[in-house]
Amino acid sequence: MSGIKLFSGTNSRYLAETIALEYDQKLGDLTISKFSDGEMQPVINESVRGDFVFFIQSTFAPADNLLELLLLIDAAKRASAGYITAVIPYFGYARQDRKDKPRVPISAKLIANMLQAAGVNRLMTMDLHADQLQGFFDIPVDHLKSEPICVQYLKDNFDLSNVLFASPDLGGVKRARNFARILERDFVTCSKYRKKANEIAEMNVIGDVEGMDVILVDDLIDTAGTLCKAAEVIMAKGAKSVRAMATHPVLSGKAYENIEKSMLSEVIVCDTIPLQKHSDKIKVISTGKLFARAIRNTHENRSIEALFDM
What we know:
The chain is α/β, with parallel strands linked by helices. It folds into two domains: 4-145 and 288-308, Rossmann fold, CATH 3.40.50; 147-285, 3-Layer(aba) Sandwich (Rossmann fold), CATH 3.40.50. It has helices at residues 13-23, 64-78, 107-118, 147-157, 173-182, 225-236, 255-261, 288-299; strands at 4-8, 30-34, 40-44, 52-56, 83-88, 122-126, 141-144, 163-167, 187-196, 199-206, 213-221, 241-249, 267-270, 282-285. It has a seven-stranded mixed sheet with strand order 10-9-8-11-12-13-14, with helices on both faces. Strands 1-4-5-6-7 form a five-stranded parallel sheet, with helices on both faces. A two-stranded antiparallel ribbon has the order 2-3. The chain is globular. The chain starts with a strand and ends in an 11-residue tail after the last helix. The model has no long low-confidence stretch (mean pLDDT 94).
């Protein structure tokens, strides 16, 4: 079997180090220098000829994170790497997955094309905004789920006897239903109406939440406007408490301020994106062990699905 090399992009090194520690292997040696105008020049400082190469880099803002990943993939391809996998814990631009109005791009498809053109042989990611994005690729996609990590965290830290799961919008019903099914609890959903992006005009709760400890589940938190509004509406309906659980802490704009001022007692997120600020309300759980196991199973040609048998 060919050797394996793990490399990290600049802004995902905190997670890559955890993955490498769980894998019991050091991160590969590379240098990313910049010209005076900001143009990047990555250099892989060790041989990757014939190796299984894994590049770990989330593609959150700025766009330099994506460009850096593309350049690293190209460098490995030109250095005769045997098999290149892009490990993208948070896949940016996934929310633009269709033409919902005239003259807009399908950005997720464009990013898929760019990764494949650069020379990637496989994609490993977590909790895509829409499952069907896997169809944008003509290469294998390992779509990891954060549910095993999140479920274990809930079991270890909460009395679930009074818990009710909730989706902050109709698009997240499947996710809320999965948590409810696994933990044998009920779920409700919120229905929202937007006048424009990141601005909610109206929200209602579909279901009974009175006296319950409600956990809102979602794939990502951007400005946190939807979650905070949902928490407000749920508490107004008589809930005992509301907390949120999401995979990707995008947390842009006034997200931290919104969370601090909200009715949410706690926000639980994964470490696919680094936090930009500290908040006593935000708890981060690690995905490093799950990614390390998935990388090992990929290298050894073993099942990925087996990691999610709950």
